[in-house]
Design a protein that fits this description.
single chain; mainly alpha; 0% strand; disordered C terminus
Length: 285
């Protein structure tokens, strides 16, 4: 996995602290609202949401406090690089543009090109708040924490001779283990919100897909973009609110994700050979 190349291993104690910090962040909304955050949400008209505030706390505590300060890592170690960020933002914009084009085509076929109801009436500020909460809060927090940090660190900690001799198995084990942690740490939120536990299987699959994107592309910003699209793709047209022709819009992001995973070596240039020894690209035989 190339993303692990040159990254320092932090140890199991830091990973334990990571889990504890994440669970504490789950309790942050109660603390934030006791300190008056609810007034900020009301004053903003919904542009500032509890999701945005809570995940910013997560970025500060889990990413900043545990990974960067306690773990001694840098943002580059978590996959944040300027050149890759530009590519990640560009590809995310492209996927969103194709998603919007798909809405137009379906709208033409169904005879309905009306705007998504969230952008009409008095709902626009709340919809904008949802976009900001997921795109600038939840997605960056979870991708930097679970893909940029946890996935890579688990790969580095699988350091026995058996793992080093089989990088593909080592990468697969890190993906599965990090996705299990991702899923289990969402259990309290699901129980709190009354969501059925069977959906945790979908969360696990969702995490594996995003991990594969990061492993294959070495671009955490692209993983952030696809994560945000999966959470809330900022729809433009009302066809998003229905499922014409049996479409499930929430799964649309899986199509470009699969294309990127399968075709990335050719997309980034067939003449460029992957580096050895890291997490970012699964070594090809």
């Amino acid at each position: 996995m190339n993303a692990a190349s040159g990254v320092e291993r932090v140890g199991w104690r830091t990973l334990g602290l990571f889990v504890v910090a994440f669970l504490l962040v789950f309790l942050a909304p109660s603390l934030l609202f006791s300190l008056g955050a609810g007034r900020l949400v009301e004053w903003s008209g919904g542009v500032v949401t509890p999701t945005l505030l809570n995940t910013w706390v997560g970025l500060l505590v889990v990413v900043g406090g545990v990974a960067l300060w306690h773990g001694g890592l840098t943002l580059r170690d978590l996959g944040v690089e300027r050149s890759k960020a530009v590519v990640g933002i560009g590809l995310t914009a492209l996927v969103w543009g194709l998603f919007t084009l798909a809405q137009v085509l379906v709208g033409v076929l169904t005879g309905d090109l009306s705007l998504y109801s969230g952008w009409t009436g008095g709902e626009a500020t709340r919809t904008l708040g949802t976009v900001l909460g997921y795109w600038l809060g939840n997605a960056p927090f979870e991708e930097l924490a679970f893909r940029g940090f946890l996935l890579v660190q688990l790969y580095l900690l699988l350091d026995g001779d058996r793992w080093r001799s089989n990088p593909l198995a080592r990468t697969g084990a890190a993906i599965v283990a990090s996705s299990l942690v991702f899923t289990l740490l969402h259990v309290p939120a699901f129980l709190w919100g009354g969501v059925e536990l069977w959906t945790l299987g979908a969360i696990f699959g969702y995490s594996v897909a995003l991990a594969l994107v990061y492993v294959r592309t070495e671009n955490v910003v692209l993983a952030i973009g696809l994560h945000a699209l999966a959470n809330f793709p900022a729809p433009v047209f009302a066809v998003f609110e229905r499922a014409p022709f049996g479409l499930d819009w929430s799964l649309v992001w899986l199509v470009p994700a699969a294309i990127l995973v399968l075709a990335w070596p050719r997309l980034r240039g067939a003449g460029r050979r992957p580096r050895s020894g890291g997490v970012g690209v699964v070594e090809e035989q």
